[in-house]
Predict the structure.
Amino acid sequence: MNHGPSVEVRSVDLREVALPLVRPFRTSFGEEREKRAILVRADCGEVQGWGECVASPEPRYSEEWLDGAWAVLAGYLGPSLLSGGPVSDPADVGRRLAWVRGHRMAKAAVESAILDAWLRSQDLSLSRWLGGVRDRVPCGVSVGIAATPEAMLEEIGGYLARGYRRVKLKIEPGRDVEVVRRIREALPDTPLSVDANAAYSLADAPVFEALDELGLVMIEQPLDHEDLADHARLQARLRTPLCLDESIRSAADARAAIELGACRVINIKPGRVGGPLEARRVHDAAMAAGIPVWIGGMLETGVGRAQNLALASLPGVTMPGDTSASDRYFDEDLTEPFVLESDGTMMVPSGPGLGVEPLEGRLSAVTVRAHTVSGP
Ligand code: NPQ
Ligand code: MG
């Protein structure tokens, strides 16, 4: 018998939401004009918990995509949770879903929802349970590819005026060195990084050698997500740290990348690695190896952003992440808006669980599809 806190999942509600973005967001793999996400609600009777699935409408950033995540949540993950009895340890969720291969973004959303409910049942905040050591965290911002460097500079000027501590420029072949050089000339002292979203190969090393002269904080995911060896070869030719994003899908990947010298920084996204527990394992592995980490972003609504902020409060998160304020993405968020303090930090939610929940009227206004997985 386990007498610790436990929750029993009675039903799992799925909602697909569509929120207009304040401006299109363009990366090397495509452009998004609205944010679509699956919100997962775990109904545990006395308590409810929420999670957000970051799979996007098309399988461009990763092989996972929204309709696939929806199908695996409705057909396999939801039913597995309902049939297994009470959850007394948040790690039970991952163990119960481990028979499903892959589908990390879908698994992450249910793990988040149940963890939220489990924490709420004990009045404990996610940050505290994870081992967070900060009540506010420094924030950066990610800037989409635009038609001209001037357009990017104008957007960046607005973010710097608000206090963002680091600016990440999205690059793609043909829109890289010249653009970044122009922005560096205009902003000689701003912490700048670039993110290629895996759009280059080792034959493009001269591009990165030119970027190496521009004093960047890091170069994120320059090469194919499956090629750690080439990342190690590229890192050996550069002073600028490489940061891996798409390549790191687990703590095991993180350990392999570090051992190979494929990166000197890691971007942690809980969806990409299968949930907040694996995200903490990636953090722990990196910290043990002396590798700094930061928390990435997938244009999450307030639900996913609350989790990112809790993770960003961990001790090994020593670089500003991509967790930006609600108004960087949406006119109206799903939760109460997250705001940037004038010093470029954001408050880590301190209430039970995620510390936030979707506003009911707002949620129903943006829901485009709903489905309930209920017990036998
Ligand atoms: C990155 N994020 O670090 C990602 C890329 C990204 C803030 O730069 C829907 C699905 C929207 C996947 C937006 C940032 C997305 C997405 C951005 C991935 O590489
Ligand atoms: Mg990235």
In short: The longest helix spans residues 66-82. Residues 248 and 254 are 6 Å apart (CA to CA).
